[in-house]
Amino acid sequence: MTETTHVTSCPLNCWDVCGLKVTVNEGKVVRVDGDEHHPITKGNICGRGRMLKERVNAKERLLYPLKKVNGQFVRISWEEALDDIAGKMRKLKEQFGPTAVLHSHDYANNGLLKNLDKRFFNCYGGATELVGSLCWGSGIEAQMWDFGNAYSHAPEDIENSRHIVIWGRNVARTNMHLFERLLAAKRRGATIVVIDPLFGSTARIADRYVCVKPGMDAFLAMGVMKELLRLGLEDRTFIEQHTLGFEDVKQVLDTISLSEIERCTGVSRDQMTELARLYGDRPTATYLGLGMQRYANGGNTIRWIDALVAASGNVGIPGGGANFGNLQVGECFDKAALTLPERKTASRTWTMMKQAEEILKADDPPVRMVIVTCGNPLAQVPNTNLMKKAFASVETVVVFEQFMTDTAAMADYVLPVAASFEEEDVYCSSMYHAYINYGPKLVDPPGEAKPDLWIWTELAKRLGFGDDFAYTREQFLAMALRPLEQYGITLARLKAEHRILLPVEPVPWRDRCFQTPSGKYEFTSSVAKQKGMDGRLQIMYPAESEEANPSLAAKYPYRLLTIHPLRSNHSQHYPLIPALQTVRIEVAADVAAAKGLADGDRARVYNDRGSLVGTVKVLDRAYPGTVNIDEGQWGAFGGPVNVLTSDLESDNGCGSTLYDCLVNIEKVTSEAK
């Protein structure tokens, strides 16, 4: 059989969603390259995308349904697995109602048809569902309060920017095609500013680097806005004609001094003045990262940065924007046709962050079954030890998986699922560009692994609603794409052209028509007030900080960050890359000096929730008192950093507080565990 090369898409849930060219020989993926014809990614792909070849071909893939018997997994048939699970679901629904089943999920991979899990549970009658997000939830909610939605400028709009502020996003690691555009912008004379507690690869190309104390980005935005107003650089016309609540902002700013802001942030007044002049010299684009909203004050932080962008007149103009998410991409599809929300008869919702606590206390009804899809919660959800306790308390745990993850190892049933390139789907980015990409099926799954959709269909048949799944993948995709037909976008055209630009606004809010209840940008949010919260911007500290909890800070004086690994999409690639299979503890120079640590030493990081042992690496130019351990590590390789993190919710209830975490650290011998 000769080699064939196919245009497809990267399915990984990241900013770029790259176009790929995948070569297949004798039914096996033999090479993954970038698609040079993709308008955004232009043939350049990251190591995570290239690792998809190793992932799809890995000898560690799960090949058959497994059932735990007397503490050990045994191979069973699909018929037995599906009959068992459907039988249990039927009895639970009869005895307790459908919410006795919890659907625990995350967003490991993209794909329009991944939404069909919701169709299944809605047709079942409902389930206990998770809301919010470990990743970006509090920031999305914040922009909903401010703008009415979370929209970003088109990638090419950066060419209109005079200045570019990268605030808390190491794009060299997480958004490589924006990094390429930054290099081009710098060559044409745009100013690049990076604000981050860690000095990474993006900071190395910046004209200015601002090292801010973790969790204190809102205070920096306050300081810059105070200077913006003192210098008279605000956009009075925009504020007066298109916003509500600016007087509330000024009142808050009057209650805090620049010297206090300097103390909180570690940033000098001169730097704040310089940033104020830069924001006033519009157009200035701001690209926000995900880390700084993973605190108890996370939503408030994004809102203060939004407010700075708005007050400086950088909203709705080419080259401006507060670029966080880009939900207008997902709004192009008819997801209700896929998910059938009207079929739900019962519902219970918990936040993703609090699922362990809620499982343990639920009694109306109790959770008797957990079905896990698109995630590895025992590595990714905060407070791992509580998660383990919660999952161990549940009668039946079912996990859809490709590998024996930490979560799969705790399951009662493990169902082997297809990987990327083994099923047809359509992929898009909800954070950066607006191209949808077609992903054909290229190879068959190994062993008896099946696509998620096949499993949902077979369970639906057994539970009496098989007709709701009596559609092909193409028919389901056509349902989702139906609103785009008026623009000439069809599945047939997408297959022929491989990728198509969606009809979205490249410069959001250009018409000054916001989606808030008032139709204006809201410095004081009426949506928040409708939800029973104070809609005004606040002076708010991280929950675990010297200001909010001095006794805890005395016991645990260091701030733990848990950034995304460079070579793995969350926990996915760890079993395939030996170099990742050790816990690496990165520490600021002052922490190393205080604790007598050097590169290669073994150390233990600990707090009241747990502890983790790893190998030390001293960081260059990190904010004093900071420690970083990449998220996603498997228990087999030292364990996840989330044994240390808190399961608190952010201030607006929609996000995690994974970075709101104080720890201590001590040097240990190599034998210590």
From TrEMBL:
Transmembrane segments: none annotated. Its cofactor is Mo-bis(molybdopterin guanine dinucleotide). The keyword Iron-sulfur applies. Residues 3-60 form the 4Fe-4S Mo/W bis-MGD-type domain. InterPro entries: Asp_de-COase-like_dom_sf, MoPterin_dinucl-bd_dom, Mopterin_OxRdtase, Mopterin_OxRdtase_4Fe-4S_dom, Mopterin_OxRdtase_prok_CS, Prok_Mopterin_Oxidored. Keywords: Iron, Iron-sulfur, Metal-binding, Molybdenum, Oxidoreductase. PROSITE patterns: 4FE4S_MOW_BIS_MGD (PS51669), MOLYBDOPTERIN_PROK_2 (PS00490). This is Molybdopterin-dependent oxidoreductase. It comes from Geobacillus proteiniphilus. The lineage of its organism: Bacteria, Bacillati, Bacillota, Bacilli, Bacillales.
